[in-house]
């Protein structure tokens, strides 16, 4: 399935596609891996639009995809895996990338606490430079 995480209609279509295939079993796993890192520059060189471009993919897209499939994950007592970054703990450069990854960390932490009561696991992967 082709999915553009910046477009609500694309996310809705993908969620419907998944629902039709998993049925009453629910969805055992959701991996959120979409991400971009540019533009990256000193903050004062960037515009609001530069920040939003990254936030739309790395954070807001992840939120919307997760929320659209969460009931299916809960039904299966599945798991959500969010790909963050070491930059979600330490900001080494300006722009929206580090901000978006801090947001992924916070969302994942709160989601993990909320869903633990339902037997759902939430994990983060924090790749560094490799």
UniProtKB/TrEMBL annotation:
<dbReference type="Pfam" id="PF00106">
    <property type="entry name" value="adh_short"/>
</dbReference>
<dbReference type="InterPro" id="IPR002347">
    <property type="entry name" value="SDR_fam"/>
</dbReference>
<keyword id="KW-0560">Oxidoreductase</keyword>
<dbReference type="GO" id="GO:0016491">
    <property type="term" value="F:oxidoreductase activity"/>
</dbReference>
<protein>
    <submittedName>
        <fullName>Retinol dehydrogenase 16-like</fullName>
    </submittedName>
</protein>
<dbReference type="InterPro" id="IPR036291">
    <property type="entry name" value="NAD(P)-bd_dom_sf"/>
</dbReference>
<dbReference type="GO" id="GO:0008202">
    <property type="term" value="P:steroid metabolic process"/>
</dbReference>
<dbReference type="InterPro" id="IPR020904">
    <property type="entry name" value="Sc_DH/Rdtase_CS"/>
</dbReference>
<comment type="similarity">
    <text>Belongs to the short-chain dehydrogenases/reductases (SDR) family.</text>
</comment>
